[in-house]
Amino acid sequence: MDMNSKKNLFGKRLVLSALSAFLIIPCPPVHATGAVDKEQAVVYLKNGNALSCTILHEDDKTVTVDWQGGEIGLQKNEIARIERQQSLRENNGIVLAPRENPAEKWIYQNSPVVKLTNGQVLDAAVSEIKGDIVILRQDLKEGGYAEQEIKRDRIESLEFRPVVNEASRQIEDKLREQFPKMRFHRIGMVTLITDSEGSALMDLKRTLRDQEITLYFEFFGLLKKKQPEFQHFVVVFDSPLDYFEYALTDGIPAWLCPGYFSPIEKVLFMMNLGGQHVTDNIYQTVLGARGVVDQQAQNLKNSVGDRYDIQIEALAEDAKIKVENAVAYLGGIYGSLSTVVLRHEFTHEFLHDWGLQTIIVSKMKEKDDALIQKKKDLFKANDLEKKKDLLLQILNIQRDANQDVKTEASNSWFVEGLAEYAATTAIGEANELRLYELKEARRKNELWPIEQLTVYKMGSFPGVTARSALSAYAQSWSFVGFLMKNYRKEFLSYLDRMRLEKPSGNDDLKWLIEALGKDLRTIEKEWIASIDALPNVEDPQLEQFIRVKEILGR
Question: What's the burial of 45, exposed, middle or buried (CB within 10 Å: 0-12/13-18/19+)?
Answer without folding.
Answer: middle
